[in-house]
Amino acid sequence: MAAVLTRDIVKKFGEVPAVNGISLNIPDGEFMVLLGPSGCGKTTYLRIICGLEQQTSGDLLIGGNIVNELPPRARGVAMMFQSYGLYPHYTVRNNIAFPLKTQRVPRVEIDKKVEWASQLLGIKRLLDRKPRELSGGERQRVALARALVREPTALLLDEPLSNLDAKLRASARLEIKAFQQRVGLTTIYVTHDQVEAMGMGDRIAVIDGGRVRQVGTPTEIYDDPADRFVATFVGTPPMNILDQNGGAVGFRPENFLPKDMMEDQSFAEFNFRVDRSEYLGSERIVYGVVEGFDPKQIVTAKLPPAHVDEASIRPGEWHPFAVRNAALRYFDADGNRASRH
Amino acid sequence: MVAIADSVPKPISRFRFILDRRDVLGALFVAPAILYVLLLVGVPFLMAIYYSLSAYTIYNPEWTFVGLSNFVDILENPVFKTTLYNTFIFTFGSQMLGLVLGKFGALLLLRPFPGRKIVRALIILPWAVPVALATVAWQWMFDSLYSVINWTLIAAGLIDRANAPNWLGNPDLAMLSIIVVNGWRFFPFAIVIFLAGITAVPQDVIDAATVDGAGFWRRNYQIILPMILPIMTIGLVFGIVFTFTDLSIVFLMTNGGPVGATSVLGFAGFQTGIVSGDVSHGAAISLFMLPVLLVIVVVMLRFIRRREI
Q1: Is A139 on the interface with B (CB under 8 A)?
Q2: Nearest by CB: B210 against A52, A86, A146
Q3: Which terminal Cβ of chain B has fewer Cβ within 10 Å, N or C?
């Protein structure tokens, strides 16, 4: 168990910087999520921490020691890959035992540790099977057992849920998080799925174009985005951002409500012409255009169906909508968060 | 509503779209290959059986049924036993050599380096060059007087002129020589097979092995090699079948000598049946290869199926 610290990590492939100066401090035991779109550099950065790639410049410290030159096995980290990377010709038992065999751990020790790891992940009955005989969820647990059997300094996960179907993903999310909390292992988790990030992370680092846009708790990322990218990347439907006076103002769809739902608070009014309405059961998404702003800009409102009658929000008509002032977010011309003026 | 069809619609001719039907098209495409196999392999095979069961020679060209006595004759012949033994040594030796060279060659060609494309094209040459051309070149390399191998060894001070190996004149060295030539011919094919297999191993598995602490040797021999075993075995099946039945290298370089030390089944069959004119025994020798190869191929294919990943 150790803290992971990176200082200004840069990785260039030829002239192109895939990772463009990332400095992160991940304390011991934290579940840190690296969130970003495809190609933003998060996987490359994770592989650098693991030791599968060598950074062009910058320092990496694990447990307070600089590990720039060390191979993966010397760093003590364990990694779980997107397609698990299980050895297809080995049984589950031998898959889990492999990292111990390479360290020349005595046979008796190996057997004990394999027992422990398989017990921890509930896969004891699968020990004599081959990977091709396992389901997706079972393979994932074997991959996790193999990662943990070495008692690593940190656990690195590269989009481990993307190969699972939606239903399994939700339960796997809970399992991984509960598991991490129980074991207290420093974990770095890469994903492009913001639902996973928000649900699992102690802190989230939003990454784009090889740089960290913002690091913070899920609440901070959601309520206090540092720039337009973070604001629109997290949250479905994404935050509405309307350009005005060289900058922009943004508000989340769930804060954009009919005026008569506002209680005595200070709010900003908008005249909203509804074009389309989608009923999703637990909520209603309404799309339209706000008066006074670019008519090509589509604005979204997320309405709780319990409080909003379908008849009152008819398409084609203008309705008075409002946003609480406290829910408005302002951005400057560069896209960074600005205060009101 | 007006009726859609006032008259009975005319059926489309069955033959207009006949080439769209997969079963018809498939049969049409496969037909030439099947015809080829039947005419150029099947008919000679049947003829071989026909002759092997007779006492047919070119001096006595009459077909008289003799049952399996030809096979009994050759099995009792000690020269044949030597031939059989030679064939196994030749096949095993050249395949092993080809595999080892092929594995190293594939590893070398995996990573990009300047000129890799040219090397990849050139490395096919041993396999692609006509066997006669290659064998004559090697023959000169092994020549008792003009061998460039001996010349190099002498120049390096490792041997002197008097003790220079007589590659084609010494029975053991002659076998080694034909093994070298056949291994050299086979190794580009092995490289292609290995490259195909190695590049099919998912990068995640190799990365996982690296993270798990496996160094170069352990990664290659405990992880990658077992995963490419099926494709390697297929390549080996091809190699074994071609080598076991090969007569060209022996015919061109050693002519079965010295004293039958390099006589292999294919060559012996040709020598007996065509050169010496004893068609019936020649056919029997040639046919002998079939059950042996069949057993080998079946065993190897079974092995692959059990290890299927």
Answers
A1: no
A2: A52
A3: N
| Structural domain harbouring A121 | 4-228
In a domain, A295, yes or no: yes
pTM score: 0.79
Is residue A72 domain-shared with residue A166, that is, in the same domain? yes
A85 and B309 within 8 Å at the Cβ level: the answer is no
Gap from A192 CA to chain B (nearest CA, Å): 19
Tell whether B208 lies on the interface with A, counting CB pairs under 8 A: yes
Q: What is the ipTM of this complex?
A: 0.83
Interchain contact, B213 vs A72, CB within 8 Å: yes
Domain match, A128 and A77 both? yes
Chosen domain end from A203, A228, A253? A228
Span B170-183, mean pLDDT? 92
Identify the bridge partners of residue A269 per DSSP, sorted by sequence position.
A322
Residues of B with Cβ-Cβ distance to A152 under 8 angstroms: none
Yes or no, beta carbons of B212 and A102 under 8 Å apart: yes
Q: Are residues A244 and A220 in the same domain?
A: no
Of the candidates A89, A102, A146, the beta carbon closest to that of B309 is on A89
Nearest to B297 by CA among B238, B247, B251: B238
Q: Please write down the HEC assignment for all residues of chain B.
A: CCCCCCCCCCCCCCCCCHHHCHHHHHHHHHHHHHHHHHHHHHHHHHHHHHHHCECCCCCCCCCCECCCHHHHHHHHCHHHHHHHHHHHHHHHHHHHHHHHHHHHHHHHHHCCCCCHHHHHHHCCHHHHCCHHHHHHHHHHHCCCCCCHHHHHHHHCCCCCHHHCCCCCCCHHHHHHHHHHHHHHHHHHHHHHHHHHHHHCCCHHHHHHHHHCCCCHHHHHHHHHHHHHHHHHHHHHHHHHHHHHCCCHHHHHHHCCCCCCCCCCHHHHHHHHHHHCCCHHHHHHHHHHHHHHHHHHHHHHHHHHHHCCC
Q: Which residue has the tokens 């020679």?
A: B57
Q: How many domains does chain A have?
A: 2
Q: Specify the CATH number for the domain of residue A149.
A: 3.40.50.300
Average pLDDT (B97-120) is: 90
Q: Which residue has the higher pLDDT, A306 or B256?
A: B256
Predicted confidence (pLDDT) per residue in B85-107, tens digit: 999 999 999 999 999 999 899 98
Flag if B205 and A103 touch (Cβ within 8 Å): no
Cβ of A276 under 8 Å from any chain B Cβ? no
Which residues in chain A come in under a pLDDT of 50? 341
Q: What type of residue is B220?
A: N
Q: Which two tokens stand for residue B209?
A: 């092995």
* Chain B residues lying within 8 Å of A62, measured CB to CB: none
CATH of the structural domain B69-307, one choice from 3.40.50.150, 1.20.120.140, 1.20.1440.60, 1.10.3720.10: 1.10.3720.10
The residue in chain B having the minimum alpha-carbon distance to the alpha carbon of residue A53 is B207
